[in-house]
Amino acid sequence: MKADKIRQMDTKELQTQDGDMQEQMFRLRFQMGMGQMDGLKKYRQLRKDRARILTVLRERELETGKKD
Asked: So what's the architecture of 3-67 in CATH?
């Protein structure tokens, strides 16, 4: 997921997306622990996308703080 696409989403959508990604990452970690390495590439991509989402959420949080 590109950062531009993430910035176009509203905060509520991003928070929902973050929760979904956490769930997927948990499941993939569990599978990898069981010896199934098929999900490694997907896990890495999810981790990067989640970091982008958290960055945008933090940027918005800081913008809100400056306006007050």
From this structure: Orthogonal Bundle (1.10)
> pTM value?
0.83
> How far, in Å, are 5, 7, 14, 29 from residue 58 at the CA level?
16, 12, 11, 26
Tokens in use for 45?
């991509």
d(CA 45, CA 25): 10
Q: Are the C-beta atoms of residues 15 and 68 closer than 8 Å to each other?
A: no
Question: Rounded to an integer, what distance in angstroms lies between the CA atom of residue 63 and that of residue 52?
Answer: 17
Per-residue pLDDT tens over the stretch 6-52? 999 999 999 999 999 999 999 999 888 888 777 788 999 999 999 99
